[in-house]
Structure to design on (71 residues):
């Protein structure tokens, strides 16, 4: 399942770091964090999507404490 969310992130470098970390999570097929558009796209296993999304947000906040996603 692939879904797009509005997000808030402070810089392009942080967006790249969050994107790379989320891509490494188990069950994630792909992830994109677009700093300019303030969009977060997650492609993950359908059955565990909500749990993976929660983990992706937590991972992003560890890298950038101001990272937020509107779900």
């Amino acid at each position: 399942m692939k879904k797009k969310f509005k997000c808030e992130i402070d810089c392009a470098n942080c967006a790249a770091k969050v994107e790379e970390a989320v891509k490494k999570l188990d069950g994630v097929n792909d992830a994109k964090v677009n700093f300019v558009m303030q969009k977060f796209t997650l492609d993950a296993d359908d059955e565990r999507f909500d749990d993976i999304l929660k983990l992706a947000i937590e991972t992003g906040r560890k890298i950038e404490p101001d990272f937020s996603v509107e779900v």
